[in-house]
């Protein structure tokens, strides 16, 4: 309950995660029928990069600040994500002050007819989140554990949509909890898109997570990873990944272009982008 994402808002991990989310939502929005997004660990919605907390770590300087500085050279598939950030900062005099968390990013890319379900367990953060979306009748904010929200809301009545699972990894068994949640959620809604974010610090933990998903019997599982350091120590965050079940058509092809471009824009001297099918269709 002590985690505060404001210290990490706009970091390279946010850039990778939210770029992928924006690409998924763009594909969902290309069809006329409404869809729904369930965000299991929602946070507060938007983050002030000039706040004392964000300034203390300055992680955004090596993340979204660098990316926006070279935005004109990035692939077209990233434009929905980049446009959302520009639009959120229209009143900031050209400065990059606000960074959208996944709830605000999703709502900016969604249509009025699309539904957004937000789960947040931190008592202070959930009140901030409610204030952020108080005038949006198609956004629901619940003070609930994100894994319980999966059980409560699936299958989504729209039959189309995304479940974003993005925990803070404060507990040592988070990989196991995510795998269990995916297995349960997929059992209730096998045609839905699930996107699970994870940190890359200790590679064996990632391998065990992937192996658990492989053994589950779930099909059509795509892995996207971005690392910015050599994986020669587990004492730092070397990168992050997204495990995506039922990814939209051609997402893998787009990511083959997007991830190397983001790696270059971030100025990383090690690591790189990686796309692979963990389990094919």
UniProtKB/TrEMBL annotation:
<feature type="binding site">
    <location>
        <position position="41"/>
    </location>
    <ligand>
        <name>S-adenosyl-L-methionine</name>
    </ligand>
</feature>
<keyword id="KW-0949">S-adenosyl-L-methionine</keyword>
<keyword id="KW-0698">rRNA processing</keyword>
<feature type="binding site">
    <location>
        <position position="120"/>
    </location>
    <ligand>
        <name>S-adenosyl-L-methionine</name>
    </ligand>
</feature>
<protein>
    <recommendedName>
        <fullName>Ribosomal RNA large subunit methyltransferase J</fullName>
        <ecNumber>2.1.1.266</ecNumber>
    </recommendedName>
</protein>
<feature type="binding site">
    <location>
        <position position="102"/>
    </location>
    <ligand>
        <name>S-adenosyl-L-methionine</name>
    </ligand>
</feature>
<comment type="subunit">
    <text>Monomer.</text>
</comment>
<feature type="binding site">
    <location>
        <position position="166"/>
    </location>
    <ligand>
        <name>S-adenosyl-L-methionine</name>
    </ligand>
</feature>
<keyword id="KW-0489">Methyltransferase</keyword>
<dbReference type="InterPro" id="IPR007473">
    <property type="entry name" value="RlmJ"/>
</dbReference>
<feature type="binding site">
    <location>
        <begin position="145"/>
        <end position="146"/>
    </location>
    <ligand>
        <name>S-adenosyl-L-methionine</name>
    </ligand>
</feature>
<dbReference type="Pfam" id="PF04378">
    <property type="entry name" value="RsmJ"/>
</dbReference>
<dbReference type="GO" id="GO:0003723">
    <property type="term" value="F:RNA binding"/>
</dbReference>
<keyword id="KW-0808">Transferase</keyword>
<keyword id="KW-0694">RNA-binding</keyword>
<feature type="site" description="Interaction with substrate rRNA">
    <location>
        <position position="3"/>
    </location>
</feature>
<dbReference type="InterPro" id="IPR029063">
    <property type="entry name" value="SAM-dependent_MTases_sf"/>
</dbReference>
<dbReference type="GO" id="GO:0036307">
    <property type="term" value="F:23S rRNA (adenine(2030)-N(6))-methyltransferase activity"/>
</dbReference>
<comment type="similarity">
    <text>Belongs to the RlmJ family.</text>
</comment>
<dbReference type="GO" id="GO:0005829">
    <property type="term" value="C:cytosol"/>
</dbReference>
<comment type="function">
    <text>Specifically methylates the adenine in position 2030 of 23S rRNA.</text>
</comment>
<dbReference type="GO" id="GO:0070475">
    <property type="term" value="P:rRNA base methylation"/>
</dbReference>
<feature type="active site" description="Proton acceptor">
    <location>
        <position position="166"/>
    </location>
</feature>
<feature type="binding site">
    <location>
        <position position="18"/>
    </location>
    <ligand>
        <name>S-adenosyl-L-methionine</name>
    </ligand>
</feature>
